[in-house]
Design brief:
By secondary structure, the chain is an alpha/beta fold. The protein has two domains: 2-50 and 363-402, Urease, subunit C, domain 1 (Roll); 52-360, Alpha-Beta Barrel (TIM Barrel). The chain contains 13 helices and 16 strands. The strands form two sheets. Strands 1, 2, 3, 4, 5, 14, 15 and 16 form an eight-stranded mixed β-sheet that branches. Strands 6-7-8-9-10-11-12-13 form an eight-stranded parallel β-sheet, sandwiched between helices. Strand 10, helix 6 (220-230) and strand 11 form a beta-alpha-beta unit. Helix 2 (92-108) packs across helix 3 (126-137). The longest helix has 18 residues, at 185-202. The chain binds fe (ii) ion.
């Protein structure tokens, strides 16, 4: 396969990208635009980018909003209650149907790598078993990592640790946790130590729902980062949400950043979900409830954006479009400068790949798997501003999704140029 006239990120020149036997075999800069032969794909100056990565989603819960009851308060904790009502209705066929529908949405938006959480506060582990089976069945089409996520607590839910070990033996890729939801601070801290202990025992990655609350005293992140540092696991560990950091005292946060930087752990923020769920106990002023993405990024601590939910008990919107999540995130975090815009796609591509620990097989580079997407825009800024569609998705040299751009017929009083 050969794609001509493609722009690459941070380079205004047109490029030819060649993919042979599923891998990039050559990437060359053109001196000008080329005319396509029959076998070539003409990118027409659009931006070629490594596929988007969804680093944080709950596929087992996707598309269940309102079943059997809606989350009327809009709080995270009512979401957990509504999900607990839906859980007894889960079965393999139900999960498969919804997961495949959700993956279709994600693929249509340029996603080729997904980290999903699977709720293991369920003695049947049906969600985890089904997601692991789908991961294996679909591995040629989309790469999925499954997090064993103890939604109702690792130490507070009956047999939580045994369920976690069972999930890891079944084949979960990542150990999860939820320290702020454990009954006590002591249990929360102990759960972080247990998560790291299990990651070492089973040689797995770590991704914790950490401090997903507005409580400024929720400080499990420092325990997670410290454990990661002491055990040398930094880049294999991720803290998701960390919304309490929004409310931390600045002096404490300054000290904390020293540890975060040294630990090398990754961060995932879910802007649409957090702006919706957090600040629910505030009157006015009302906190935004997102972690300090701008400051983490400035400190060169790896941070990326995820969707978290698509039409589930916690969030009843969502469409798989990470560009929408990115747009929200940049607004909410006040990352609206030229430099922010010109590197914006990092937050849903390269940074996310680092979080998933897949850098060895990610990126448009000779020798790496021939995976890319083509975006309707010329650079990060124009894709973001126009919310440019994903026009093409290529996986190992095969086109897996193609979108025909919408055509707008302008009113007669506009003289042809509506760019
Ligand atoms: Fe989540």
């Amino acid at each position: 396969m050969q794609i001509i006239n493609a722009r690459l990120r941070h380079s205004p020149a047109l490029h030819t990208l060649s993919i042979e036997q599923g891998r990039f075999s050559a990437i060359s800069e053109q001196s000008g635009a080329l005319a396509a032969t029959g076998a070539q794909i003409d990118a027409a100056g659009k931006l070629a980018c490594a596929p988007f990565v969804e680093p944080h989603i709950h596929l087992d819960a996707a598309l269940t909003a309102g079943e059997p009851n809606w989350n009327l308060s809009g709080t995270l904790f009512e979401g957990i209650e509504r999900w607990a009502e839906r859980k007894p209705l889960l079965n393999e066929a139900d999960i498969r149907r919804r997961v495949l529908q959700t993956l279709e949405l994600l693929v249509s938006q340029g996603v080729q790598f997904v980290r999903t959480h699977a709720d293991i506060s369920d003695p049947s582990l049906v969600g985890l078993r089904t997601l692991c089976a789908l991961r294996d069945e679909l591995k040629e089409k989309i790469e999925i990592q499954v997090v064993a996520f103890p939604q109702e607590g690792l130490l507070s839910f009956p047999n939580g640790v045994q369920l976690m070990e069972q999930a890891l033996e079944i084949g979960a890729d990542v150990v999860g946790g939820i320290p702020h939801f454990e009954y006590t601070r002591e249990l929360g801290e102990a759960s972080m130590k247990k998560v790291i202990e299990l990651a070492l025992k089973y040689d797995r990655l770590v991704d914790v729902h950490c401090d997903e609350i507005d409580d400024p005293n929720s400080r499990f992140l420092e325990v997670l980062a410290c454990e990661a540092l002491f055990h040398g696991l930094g880049e294999r560990v991720t803290a998701s949400h960390t919304t309490a950091m929004h409310s931390y005292d600045n002096a404490y946060c300054s000290k904390l950043f020293r540890l975060l930087k040294r630990s090398g752990i990754n961060f995932i923020s879910c802007p649409t979900e957090s702006i919706h769920l957090q600040g629910r106990f505030d009157s006015y002023p009302k906190r935004r409830g997102l972690t300090r993405v701008k400051e983490l990024n400035a400190a060169e601590i790896n941070v990326c954006f995820g969707q978290d939910s698509i039409f589930d008990p916690w969030y009843s919107l969502g469409n798989g479009k990470l560009l929408r999540t990115l747009d929200f995130g940049l607004h909410i975090c006040q990352m609206m400068g030229y430099d922010d815009f010109s590197q914006a796609l990092d937050l849903i591509s390269d940074n996310s790949a680092r979080t998933l620990h897949i850098e060895d097989r990610y990126g448009i580079e000779v020798g790496k798997p021939g995976n890319l997407i083509l975006l309707d825009g010329e650079d990060d800024y124009s894709v973001l501003r126009k919310q440019g569609d994903v026009l093409l998705s290529v996986r190992q040299g095969e086109v897996i999704m193609r979108r025909e751009p919408a055509r707008v017929v302008s009113p007669a009083w506009i003289d042809g140029n509506n760019a």
